Amino acid sequence: MSKLIASAGIRGAHKIFARVESKYKETLDKYGPEQEVAFPNTGYFLPIIYGILGIPVAKLGDMEEVIKRSKNLLPQLVKI
């Protein structure tokens, strides 16, 4: 039972990542890598990314490394 639940969670994580990756590519194509990404009126980078990975994200192009590292953090799909 727990392997079944864990496998469903892993499959879900892969689906969510695929959607994020697809949206990122669409946005990058539309706005280009120099488009700023920020919280208006603050001096913050995307705080969770910066806090966990130590990668400052100020432009869309900066997200490429985050996408690659995130993909590597996903566990492999397990067949039941």
Describe the structure concisely for a colleague:
With 80 residues, this protein is mainly alpha-helical. The chain contains three helices and no strands.
Explain what you see.
There is one protein chain. 60% of the residues lie in helices and 0% in strands. The protein has a single domain, classed as Helicase, Ruva Protein, domain 3. The chain is mainly alpha-helical. The mean pLDDT is 87.
What order do the SSEs take from the amino end to the carboxyl end, as H and E? HHH
- Tell me the CATH topology: Helicase, Ruva Protein, domain 3
Using the CA coordinates, give the radius of gyration. 15 Å
Structural class: mainly alpha
At the fourth level of CATH, the homologous superfamily is Carbon monoxide dehydrogenase alpha subunit. Chain M, domain 1
Number of domains: 1
| CATH architecture group name | Orthogonal Bundle
* Largest beta-sheet characterization: none
Number of helices: 3
Low-confidence stretches: none
Helix content: 55-70%
CA-based shape: elongated
Strand tally is 0
* Distance between the first and last residues' Cα: 10 Å
Average pLDDT works out at 87
User: Per DSSP, what share of the residues sits in E-state strands of 2 or more residues?
Assistant: under 5%
